[in-house]
Each structure stands twice: as structure tokens, then as C-alpha cells.
Amino acid sequence: MVPHPREELFSVLVVDDHPLLREAIAARLAQMGAGTVHEAATVAEARARATATGPCDLAILDLGLPDGSGIELVTELRNHGWPRIVVLASSDDPYAVRSAFQAGAQAYLLKSASPMVVTDGVRRVLEGGVYADPSVAPVLATGTRVPGTDNTPRELSAREVEVLQLVADGQSNKEIGEELSLSALTVKSHLSRIGRKLGTGDRAQMVALAMRAGVIR
């Protein structure tokens, strides 16, 4: 059974390094029917809490944590059986939004959002749905389309986006292959396909086009 915020108690882990914000979120969740709210201020604390409690019904976490990546924490929690994750972030950066959903989050909310939007987003996730803050929804609507050199949008696969991000990070084909468990030849094939889609074989230009579209950082 999926817990309903007004009918059944549910457990939550809130991860944010700002005590006042955590307190406000916890109070809002209690109003919605949270029975137990665990808190953590860092990635390390979140890992310890997650290990101690096991999967809660819901996790709400910031991406800008002081000791590590919030995106990686989303992936870890999902891999350990956490069923519902809401990202509450200060950034509406397109790369962060896409990365959060690709990592397994069911909602992306902005800290600047009204309490009503936050409540709606959490309720939607508890009911088994997904939710994006209205101001970031257009980012998701564009998917992973990148305008090529002729300005025609081309759809890149998730793997192609991964490869391009590692190119942007300065990695060679061999290093990218090791990172993604692919052969250097397969990486080269991905880059050739990306080049055909975007109309350029130049690595720097491919990266620039993808960055401009907000697909990679």
C-alpha cells in the first residue's frame, strides 16, 4: 500500500545542512501525516541514518551538501531500496534537474517554492507519482535534445550524454571507456554517432553545443 499523507503515518529522512530549513520541512511533513522524521546535515550523516533505519517511505534531500554529491546520494538510496526521493534544491540548473531524475528522484522542488508547491510535490510522490517544480518543468519537456550546427534539435541517448559529460571533464576515450565499462572503440563509436547527430566531429564543439542546451555541465 502506498501511504497517503492524510490517512497513514509515513517515515521520512530529511537531508539538508541548514537547521532552520530542516525544522520547517519536518514541521510541514508532520502536518501531512509523517510519523517519524529523521534528520541529517551531511552525506555522511545521511548514510549513517539510512544504515541505521533502513529505507523510509520518503527521503527529501538537498543537492548542495557540504561533504559530497547529493546526486550520488540519490543513487545510493535508490540502490538500497528507498522507494521515494524528493530533491529540494536551490538551483534550477537544467543539468542538475535532469541528473536528479536520472539518478532516481521522483520530484525536483526549489527551496524558493511556496509551501503549497512543496506540499503538492511531496503528496504527489507519496501517491506514487512524479513532480517537477513548475519553473523547472520546461527543462524536462525538452528532454535531452541538443540543437546541432544547423540549429535542428537532435535527441541524444542517456549513454551519449554520459560520454559527452566525460569528454567535457577532459577524459580521453580510454579513460571514458574505463569509467563506463566500455571499450575505447565503443566510446569512439558513440562520439561518431553524436557527431553525426550534431553535425560536427569536433569534440570541443560537441561539448559546447551540449552545454548550451543544458544537457551537460
UniProtKB/TrEMBL annotation:
<dbReference type="InterPro" id="IPR000792">
    <property type="entry name" value="Tscrpt_reg_LuxR_C"/>
</dbReference>
<protein>
    <submittedName>
        <fullName>Response regulator</fullName>
    </submittedName>
</protein>
<dbReference type="InterPro" id="IPR001789">
    <property type="entry name" value="Sig_transdc_resp-reg_receiver"/>
</dbReference>
<keyword id="KW-0597">Phosphoprotein</keyword>
<dbReference type="Pfam" id="PF00072">
    <property type="entry name" value="Response_reg"/>
</dbReference>
<dbReference type="InterPro" id="IPR016032">
    <property type="entry name" value="Sig_transdc_resp-reg_C-effctor"/>
</dbReference>
<feature type="modified residue" description="4-aspartylphosphate">
    <location>
        <position position="62"/>
    </location>
</feature>
<dbReference type="InterPro" id="IPR039420">
    <property type="entry name" value="WalR-like"/>
</dbReference>
<dbReference type="InterPro" id="IPR058245">
    <property type="entry name" value="NreC/VraR/RcsB-like_REC"/>
</dbReference>
<dbReference type="Pfam" id="PF00196">
    <property type="entry name" value="GerE"/>
</dbReference>
<keyword id="KW-0238">DNA-binding</keyword>
<dbReference type="InterPro" id="IPR011006">
    <property type="entry name" value="CheY-like_superfamily"/>
</dbReference>
<feature type="domain" description="HTH luxR-type">
    <location>
        <begin position="149"/>
        <end position="214"/>
    </location>
</feature>
<feature type="domain" description="Response regulatory">
    <location>
        <begin position="11"/>
        <end position="126"/>
    </location>
</feature>
